[in-house]
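Build the 3D complex.
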Amino acid sequence: MNRNEGVKIVTIGGGSSYTPELMNGFISRYDRLPVREIWLVDIEDGREKLEIVGAMAQRMWDKAGLPVKVHCTLDRREALKGADFVTTQFRVGLLYARIKDERIPFSHGMLGQETNGAGGIFKAFRTIPVILDIVKDMKELCPDAWLINFTNPSGMVTESIIRYGGWKKTMGLCNVPIGCMLNEPALIDKTLDELVFRFAGIDHFHWHRVFDLDGNEVTDQLIEAILEGKKDDGTPANIHEVKWFPEQLRAIGMIPCGYHRYYYLQSDMLADGLSEFNGKGTRAQQVKEVEDQLFELYKDPNLAEMPDLLKKRGGAHYSDVATESIAAIYTDANEHIVCSTVNNGAIPDLPSDAVVQLSTYVGAAGPAAVSFGPLPTAERGWLQCMWNMQRLVEEAAVTGDYGTALQAFALNPQIPSGAEAKKVLDEMLVAHAKYLPQFADKITELKAAGVKPSDPVVLELMEQGL
Amino acid sequence: MNRNEGVKIVTIGGGSSYTPELMNGFISRYDRLPVREIWLVDIEDGREKLEIVGAMAQRMWDKAGLPVKVHCTLDRREALKGADFVTTQFRVGLLYARIKDERIPFSHGMLGQETNGAGGIFKAFRTIPVILDIVKDMKELCPDAWLINFTNPSGMVTESIIRYGGWKKTMGLCNVPIGCMLNEPALIDKTLDELVFRFAGIDHFHWHRVFDLDGNEVTDQLIEAILEGKKDDGTPANIHEVKWFPEQLRAIGMIPCGYHRYYYLQSDMLADGLSEFNGKGTRAQQVKEVEDQLFELYKDPNLAEMPDLLKKRGGAHYSDVATESIAAIYTDANEHIVCSTVNNGAIPDLPSDAVVQLSTYVGAAGPAAVSFGPLPTAERGWLQCMWNMQRLVEEAAVTGDYGTALQAFALNPQIPSGAEAKKVLDEMLVAHAKYLPQFADKITELKAAGVKPSDPVVLELMEQGL
Amino acid sequence: MNRNEGVKIVTIGGGSSYTPELMNGFISRYDRLPVREIWLVDIEDGREKLEIVGAMAQRMWDKAGLPVKVHCTLDRREALKGADFVTTQFRVGLLYARIKDERIPFSHGMLGQETNGAGGIFKAFRTIPVILDIVKDMKELCPDAWLINFTNPSGMVTESIIRYGGWKKTMGLCNVPIGCMLNEPALIDKTLDELVFRFAGIDHFHWHRVFDLDGNEVTDQLIEAILEGKKDDGTPANIHEVKWFPEQLRAIGMIPCGYHRYYYLQSDMLADGLSEFNGKGTRAQQVKEVEDQLFELYKDPNLAEMPDLLKKRGGAHYSDVATESIAAIYTDANEHIVCSTVNNGAIPDLPSDAVVQLSTYVGAAGPAAVSFGPLPTAERGWLQCMWNMQRLVEEAAVTGDYGTALQAFALNPQIPSGAEAKKVLDEMLVAHAKYLPQFADKITELKAAGVKPSDPVVLELMEQGL
Amino acid sequence: MNRNEGVKIVTIGGGSSYTPELMNGFISRYDRLPVREIWLVDIEDGREKLEIVGAMAQRMWDKAGLPVKVHCTLDRREALKGADFVTTQFRVGLLYARIKDERIPFSHGMLGQETNGAGGIFKAFRTIPVILDIVKDMKELCPDAWLINFTNPSGMVTESIIRYGGWKKTMGLCNVPIGCMLNEPALIDKTLDELVFRFAGIDHFHWHRVFDLDGNEVTDQLIEAILEGKKDDGTPANIHEVKWFPEQLRAIGMIPCGYHRYYYLQSDMLADGLSEFNGKGTRAQQVKEVEDQLFELYKDPNLAEMPDLLKKRGGAHYSDVATESIAAIYTDANEHIVCSTVNNGAIPDLPSDAVVQLSTYVGAAGPAAVSFGPLPTAERGWLQCMWNMQRLVEEAAVTGDYGTALQAFALNPQIPSGAEAKKVLDEMLVAHAKYLPQFADKITELKAAGVKPSDPVVLELMEQGL
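Done.
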């Protein structure tokens, strides 16, 4: 990194509605992180959005009075040349794909959860081949750059970058931990800097323990405060707040993340999801509406600030964590950031080469994982189940092996295995055919056998070629 | 063991309908295993059955012309004095309890599987305190005896004997592996002694690989033969033969046990179970009928042979494995027997002190576990999930902690977690109150809150004090 | 901790010649760490030194113009009441004991190395019972305090505090890593804040890797610079600089600590040590002289600054690391400090509950161990050997079991096992009898058999009752 | 294997003086193991011996009246075609090499132990490239054969076969365990079939525990009997019977193998060895004499029985174990045999893919390793040290990397590290140059620097081109 010239940032999926938040993050950290230029990269299908959001981004920098040039391009290789940091926030198949990810499982009475459920599995199938392609380019064009991934499922994608791509200088981000850290202190009348957090698990499936400044654990106090439920405990906006079982939370002795409701309270989360599916539309459909509104706002040539509406988008703080991570690497700040990185023993219940999500101190050498030690019995069982599921998904994403995909579906606790689940798998393969070249043979076979989603919304998207 | 005097066998739960099969096993091995006396022990509620089956057992020995005395007693301590081998086949709460174990979950749309499902969890809750009591007596009355457990859930019970009871000279048996070994060779035109089997997993949740006499693996051939489905592959009679997904079986590369259908094909097994629940009655109800018929047969003073009907009972070969194990220990035969014993590293994916079920060579020092090595990804995930679930059940059984019981329910892949599952847990606690002293406080609380099973069959049993 | 009142520090072994350095550390950190009072605790035998050094310490605070009161006491319990931080720097048997630790092995042609060799083993035998006594007092008198141990062998002592004492709020310090970090950067024309260090191992037996601010590893460059040997590489003053084998250092791929010479270059270190033993006296004897001079200086009522001579003492930077650690805990600074703490998986080649020495980020919840991942083959073997040796020493120290002590001696790579080594063990037991109550029976037996050290210096010390 | 035609055996190193014992083993097992033909393979340098011993072998079969043809050949590939079992007993460089292996270290005051000491390391360097060549031939010429290795260092060679050769159907044999099992029972007035043995460790570095027929451990009784020392405890003839320290043996709680004296009683074993070195010659020199006498005997055309002298050779029972293993595989006998095979978790203190030596049950699928569970502290440390040392040797043998060889030397507990040890390493490289093509560059460099052994016996051998 040439520290005299300022930093070159490349953002893959730059046409995303998140980009203004990302700009905001860089602008507010400019004193620590002297950005020189930002390259927003997208694909042909996203050209229009890229132009809108690129112009908006440039306006933001200009308003801040900072000499940063925002480049918009469809030429990824051009952008990557000499990059210092590459961030990834792309969504293969756009929100249309997520709509399919959610609706097909629901149409068979199952959850299509987009992080580690059936939806997340297919997001991984679509994303992993693309990210490996990006890594290939980076090896050639910017071999010293850091790859800051916040494309979901962030854990699986980051593990694939390291394991299959062989790229070490990376970290995977997620906004769930920062949500917990921002909201929980108030529950016990503390501020964030009066508490020490220790997270461990995998992406969207982690627990944490909390200590006060005297080094004493206050996790139990927090659990009681969460059970009392007086204030916001940081559960992401997109998760229905089904109430935890107090006896279970106390037995855990750690604070689960909001997404654990899909595992500890599965039938209730399913009921909630089905009611949306049958009513106002699934989460993706809701997000799509917000996103359309956002782009309308971004078009306004007078708008040079991140609009409030973006906070409703669901991914709040993602960009904050991303830009903070980059600043921490750049300034060797050894800052506490929760991210996906190589286990190296930190969670001894998983293999050393697993990618896990946990407390790290991020500095110039990247994230230093804080060793957490063995988990309690139940959480060990959950985590071992989920991480092996994650591995199966990655393997299926890379090999296109249908049996492995079936195994991932069967092991996934959100999916009740059996003939119905296999139908979901098959319909999803067909629905996403365009983005799943690795499964091409199997999809051909399925189509020949007449497999086709039955959900009308999905069918309509397919007919539109989306 | 005084080898000059012959062996003293004590069978706890001696009034079981299985006892004649057990006698058969001992009679046919008498040349290797010189039994001196057999003590059948039961409790007051089982006195009548004990007398019937005890008389039948004596007739069997007499007919065989062997000088073995069968003692029937309700005094367990009297029986245990100086025992060489203690076998356990008791069922706390009799088949009535299993009827509740199955019907309550079904009445909420869930499986109540008696091995490792909700039913098995409650069987463990009822059984573990009793077996620990037996161990306490044994320490005092027959400290050198072997405890051969075939009370289900055999894995959890055996692990509790070792971990909480501190009793090392034990092994846990199950009839599933022997079923596989007896039926599978024919599928590829072999005999049992032309194949080498290697099992690994936990009780009712294991896989196996198979080799021929040239040392080459033939597992794949067997998988194809099973998928062709021409002949009986050893799946226990009580499991509906929902068809495996060929792609999944091939991806596994090992042969799962029949019970894996509850995990790989969950929704289909549930549908089957619900249809029985709503129709001819659950498995326990069917077995109850067979058992009643068996006792009618046993009453016949002319009957001195195991009736064919017993084979329909579902536990075929249990006694065969049990008596063979005892003979192998007695004669230091180093025989290949699949049983539950301490892992000691044989399955490196689980802790060394876990109790697992796998291939062992049984001799005078007990079962020598054959190290299996690491499992493939998916099976590692499944096994780690299930064994930790097993540990939670044992811990809840010993401590009576409700939160731990909830955790076991949540982690159990057969049970969709949430409010409905909690209802099942609560109703089962209430329904089995009589046999769950460790949960007494919680049950009092639940009863006060009006928790009560809704299934009429269960309610009727409860009204009858069963 | 009541942050309004200032911090109460208690130093066990307060009469040590190191105390002025410690005071210096506190004085220079007073803006971050508002000390209220310091209690220097010692035993009757150290009363005179305590008074000298205590007066000197008070003069230092006074000269700095800071309102801190230094208390000198022989009443440990009085001192511990309400302590916030307890530091330990005591030496059971004083330097006389170390003289025996070194001379007895040398008199049999072996190394008596005071960290992890025969000397260190006996230092552990003398120290561990005392530290466990201190922990007992702390549980009663200052249950929330942090115990900052820098009594050697720091790793064994810290592990005993945690494992046998059950005290979690502790960390073990050592000045070797800070020595490396201060000296190595210049070897490659960098400054300390331009490099990121990652240490792993156990106390006085660790390796490290180094990265630059671009996140690229520069360990190999450092190795070459060390092999060129142009500048000081941070090897402690007390270690003779026998040259590393270049091929070995390159094969390691990590930088060993200076003490590794006792393992990688054993015969040469022995030759050096024997030449001192036969010449100017062993290291302890040299240190003793420096120490006597130091106390002469401290007596000067005009001296209110740490004298330069102290830097020659061999333990330079110990107090720096100690006071920096306390400040980092107090201010939740998340500072990179290398210390002994619970492994928790950070080095997957050792058990999770092992105490290891490695890079941590120290904040209010204590040291957060950075997971290092698996070591290369040779270093794994060395570390596993040494940590198990450490465990044996601790166990023998606690139980007084002679067989375990023999096992520790045999496994220790510095000690050639056999009859001669057993003689060393026996003579050392006899020579240190006064401080080894746990071995009393064995020592009585040895004395009865006429076991007695043959080294005249040791004999003289014994005759003087030292 | 075509079981109708009889078995084809190939013995690499067929010209060895052991061959008659091997023939004896096959002859006495002919009823179980119908041998068809035996191919004795050797190299040009061994032609004369091969012819002598081949003729002797044929006479033995003829005398036994069995229709087995013994083929002698220098064409290894011809011999391997269609082999069912390949046994390896070759010695690269003959006993001359072992003389160098022992004398060079002794000439520098160190042990040159031929199993796992400096001698063993160089035997591995010479042997591993050759065995990997044999494996390459076998893949082509007899891909279904079993490779029964009893070339030392048997553990390292077997691990290399599996790890670097990728050949699974193998087992490594050693005569030490059988020696223990044959001699120990009498120490406690038992016979072999009244005891159950459980071995664990690595080749020539293992411990065992023993149980009686009641399943109770009798290890402690055996330890006391060994300490009393009334009878032969099975220590191999070539190990000087330095007495164990009773307290250490009791602390171990397991029975070490005779070779553990080199680790537990190092200085005494060294003294013994040096006295032989300076007196009647090292073990290799003694063996050489016996061997010369043996070949004189074998030349006698009337001799058709194994001569008694062979038993003095030191490798007694090797061939017994080898032929018994082959018979156990052929008949699927599940016999208890201690051998080197893949760990697979059996010793959880070592990686799953390590090759270890332990109790197995040998049948058609090869050795089934009995899981032993975690070792006690000291033995865990020893074993982890030694196995990692083993791995370094293998790696250096395959790569020819000098730094790795130095690391192996340093970690080896028999070798005091330092400049002197490096001299030993260097002289041995030069002395064995002919058989170490992988180290050619380094050896050239050493020769250029004038490195040359100083021991006159070694020098003479080198001058003779041996």
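The mean pLDDT of chain B is 95.
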